Amino acid sequence: MKSSDVIIIGAGIIGLSLGISLRRRGLRVLIVERGEPGREASSAAAGMLAGSGSEIPAALRVLAVASARMYPEFVHELEDESGMTVDLREFGTILISAKSEFPEAARRLSFEQLQELDPGLAGLSLPEGRPALHRSSQDVAIAYLSERSVDPRELVAAAIKAARHREVDFASGHEVRGVLLEGGRAAGVETANAKYSAGTIVNCAGAWAGSFGPVELPVRPVKGQMLSLIGGPPIRHVVRGDQVYLVPRSHGQVVVGSTLEDAGYDRRTDVNTIKNLLHAALELAPGLAAARIHEDWAGLRPGTPDELPILSESSIPGYFVATGHYRDGILLAPVTAQVMTDVITGNPPAHDLDAFAASRFSQLAMLP
Ligand code: GLY
């Protein structure tokens, strides 16, 4: 049986980042992945690094802000170790809302300021010269937020290469059937075709984290359908509207997302949903009518009952959990790698993790 110090279940951005971090501490790491590394939610994500956004649950804000601050160095290290480049954009986010409720850190903008900041978005490039938002600018409020965005596919590709460069091992193509125990402690994992031994196991299996024992985890897939456009007016900023968000990439695509669907493990897209996303995107930026549809896809976010991640040791010594990042897995990868490396190596974590204990769900189940 192949032996390592740590086995990580799941080669998404959480498992990869943690694997690299533990390897930097000198531990021998094996990542076991049911499919292909990085191909599930991590590659489907939009990549908004919304650390200060109001949509982040209050209990998660400290971790979100910390992780957003870590991003430039996190990306720089992955680029260095992989020799690849990762599209990390610093233009910031434009919020457009009929509700006028913005995070404290947001700066209100007039329509004229928006025109100056992002002419592509304001629609100045429309053939008839009609500002796109102008018609509705009486009804919506506009604000600017200093947040970055990243291309998750490039990030994941760099993380896989950096992990291999650091001699993190991978076993791909077979799902984990269960965690092996010895004397009540975690001792390895079993897949359909092999057993692997290690004294420390970390469940980073995203939406699949609850699909094997021995610990019950209430993680469920929350489907998000998305599409990308190409060839429209150049949009510089991430744009978040009430119905939809737009995330531009430096190669010219604009990602449009997303739905929140309870659809099990179905990753198909459907015409009506894509049409609705497109319709909402054109409401925000009518200039995108000049674009072509580049791609459509869906990803499965790992959702938990309280929409907070699980970052702790489980009730089984040596068996840890780092999953349930729901809509913020890309954002939270650096801080998750940092705090879980501390927890696993027996050091005090840099942040209070009480709200993220796996035990909170067994406590809930015991309530009358
Ligand atoms: N993080 C964006 C989403 O979940 O749609």
Explain this structure.
The model is unreliable at 124-132 and 364-368 (pLDDT under 50). The protein has two domains: 6-84 and 152-219 and 305-360, 3-Layer(bba) Sandwich (FAD/NAD(P)-binding domain), CATH 3.50.50; 93-146 and 221-302, 2-Layer Sandwich (D-Amino Acid Oxidase, Chain A, domain 2). A hairpin with a 3-residue loop joins strand 12 and strand 13 (195-197). The chain has 368 residues and is of the alpha/beta class. The strands form four sheets. Strands 7-8-6-16-17-18-15-19 form an eight-stranded mixed sheet. Strands 10-3-2-14-21-20 form a six-stranded mixed sheet, covered by helices on one side. The protein has helices at 13-24, 41-44, 61-82, 111-117, 119-122, 152-165, 271-284, 329-344, 359-366; strands at residues 2-3, 6-9, 29-33, 48-49, 88-89, 93-97, 107-109, 141-145, 148-150, 169-172, 176-182, 185-191, 195-197, 200-203, 220-230, 238-240, 245-248, 254-257, 292-303, 310-313, 319-323. Glycine is lined by residues 46, 48, 224, 257-258, 301, 327.
